[in-house]
Specification:
Blueprint (H helix, E strand, L loop, with lengths): L3 H7 L9 H17 L17 H4 L2 H23 L5 H10 L4 H4 E4 L2 E4 L5 H11 L4 H8 L13 H12 L5 H7 L16
Antiparallel strand pairs: 1-2
Helix pairs in contact: 2-5, 4-5, 4-9, 5-8, 7-8, 8-9
Length: 196
């Protein structure tokens, strides 16, 4: 089972969340998911998806850290260029919790690493945030962050931005992200243009 110390060792940026409640929520979500699947005592062994080897695509840790760093970039960009304040603590907390339910979703057994069929880590992350008393804004950002299907459409500016951030923080092309979630990329004009 994951300890607070282990989570902070892996995600030291959680300490940068100034809102004590959101910082605690980020830690509580990781402990919650590890209680549901104690197989994962080392977050560093968790890939982005069972079909995406760590050697090629990186770890869940790298993806989550990239999401937090992109949130910091977007917050300052929106403030500087458009005089709009994104709540950086909200974005940071959402970044740290949005994929935590993959700890439950992915099982490592005799057949190798597998995802539980029909399990949606995004929707589960939103449910967990709510169960732990987290803000609705973060629950919605987590549940609407994935292109795994139109199950939850992002209804707020923050959730829409967060949805777009997710594939930007993967060491894969966008089409590969869609395929990993069972979608085929839509046909584009590129398919019909003659080769040069």
């Amino acid at each position: 089972m994951l300890t607070t110390e282990h989570v902070l060792e892996v995600f030291p940026g959680i300490d940068a969340i100034t809102d004590r409640r959101l910082r605690q929520l980020s830690l509580d979500v990781w402990r919650y998911v590890s209680e549901r699947n104690p197989t994962w005592s080392d977050i560093g062994r968790i890939p982005l998806h069972p079909t995406m080897p760590i050697a090629t695509h990186g770890t869940l840790i790298a993806h989550v850290a990239a999401m937090a760093r992109l949130a910091e970039t977007l917050a300052s960009l929106y403030r500087e260029l458009w005089a709009q304040d994104l709540d950086l603590d909200t974005f940071r907390a959402a970044a740290y919790v949005h994929d935590a339910a993959k700890v439950i979703e992915f099982t490592d057994g005799p057949a190798g690493l597998q995802a539980i069929a029909g399990y949606n880590h995004a929707i589960e992350a939103g449910r967990i945030v709510r169960e732990l008393g987290g803000p609705e804004a973060i629950a919605h950002m987590a549940e609407a962050h994935s292109f795994s299907g139109p199950l939850v459409m992002p209804r707020t500016r923050d959730a829409q931005l967060f949805l777009l951030m997710d594939p930007m923080c993967l060491n894969v092309v966008f089409e590969r992200h869609l395929k990993a979630n069972g979608w085929e990329p839509p046909p584009t004009l590129e398919r019909y243009r003659p080769a040069r």
